[in-house]
Write a structure and sequence with these properties.
7 helices, binds nicotinamide-adenine-dinucleotide, oxidoreductase, 41% helix, oxidoreductase activity, single chain, SDR_fam, EC 1.1.1.-, Sc_DH/Rdtase_CS
């Protein structure tokens, strides 16, 4: 198979790059020729995640706007431009019922997943707007489309990311900047490790992904491939869209019978 070089000579930022989907995305973009700035709040794991080649890392908590502004200025100083942003950092705090979810959980979850993504878009969006080109891919979730895949705060934060994808795409489209989202289904990563560990410990591994039409769970590289597509010129006329990458999970109502 010929090497794909869609990002040759391009510069990308990936947030939440130390683990799971972000790490796989940084690797994929690097493999396709990009120079990547990997951002994460976990400095130790970040150092382990750098793909082979000439890439940069920066510790950054996306829920802190000052850190976001500093990281984007760092990218500009070293790269001189930003062609792609994988806006991916996220957390899940708990899966509590609406009557039990405390305000701190709401604030923490929205602070990282929604406001953090918005702050990255704000600062990278200014750079891309001035360039007159650029592509952003937000990592939302099937939890933002249907209930049952996360707690109240997590699901609402991801529905917010889908909405943010549409509004930002409308704000930035006139400047040649595209904004899309992926909505992953169940993927084996650090975030879902407790779910996978529990299922394996209790002999229930076959239930993982059983609701997906492909009858399996997904892998970070499969989300990275979709992010790379949406960030590339292959998606040059796609903006404001949220693409489920979920083995068909959201295609069905999964009614019994
Ligand atoms: P992960 O825990 O393996 O990776 C998330 C990374 O984000 C970690 O390295 C973590 O340190 C970093 N991070 C968390 N908060 C941060 C912050 N405030 N600032 C900077 N970095 C921060 O999980 P993952 O599954 O790879 O998650 C990536 C994205 O995919 C998240 O937005 C998550 O909500 C989304 N997602 C995951 C799944 C799944 O099944 N794993 C499904 C749908 C959506």
């Amino acid at each position: 198979m010929p090497a794909i070089t869609r990002f040759d000579g391009k510069y990308a930022i990936v947030t939440g790059a130390a683990s799971g989907i972000g790490r796989a995305t940084a690797a994929r973009l690097a493999e396709e020729g990009a120079r990547v700035l990997l951002l994460d709040r976990n400095a130790e794991a970040l150092a382990e995640a750098v793909p082979t080649g000439d890439h940069l890392t920066r510790t950054c908590d996306v829920s802190d706007e000052a850190q976001v502004a500093e990281a984007v200025a760092f990218a500009q100083a070293h790269f001189g431009r930003i062609d792609a942003l994988a806006n991916n950092a996220g957390i899940i705090c708990d899966r509590s019922q609406i009557t039990e979810t405390d305000k701190a959980t709401w604030e923490r979850t929205l602070g990282v997943n929604l406001i953090g993504a918005a702050m990255m878009l704000k600062h990278v969006g200014k750079v891309m707007q001035a360039q007159g080109t650029g592509a952003v891919v937000n990592t939302a979730s099937v939890a933002g489309i249907r209930s049952g895949a996360g707690g109240n705060a997590y699901s609402a934060s991801k529905a917010g990311v889908i909405s943010l994808t549409m509004t930002a795409a409308c704000d930035l489209g006139q400047y040649g900047v595209r904004v899309n989202a992926v909505c992953p289904g169940l993927i084996e990563t650090g975030m879902t490790a407790p779910v996978f560990d529990y299922a394996r410990e209790h002999g229930k591994e076959d239930r993982l992904g059983a609701r997906a039409e492909l009858r399996r769970y997904g892998h970070p590289e499969e989300i990275a491939a979709a992010i790379a597509f949406l960030a590339s010129d292959d998606a040059s006329f796609i903006t404001g869209q949220a693409l489920p990458v979920d083995g068909g999970n959201t295609a069905s109502l999964n009614l019994p019978g």
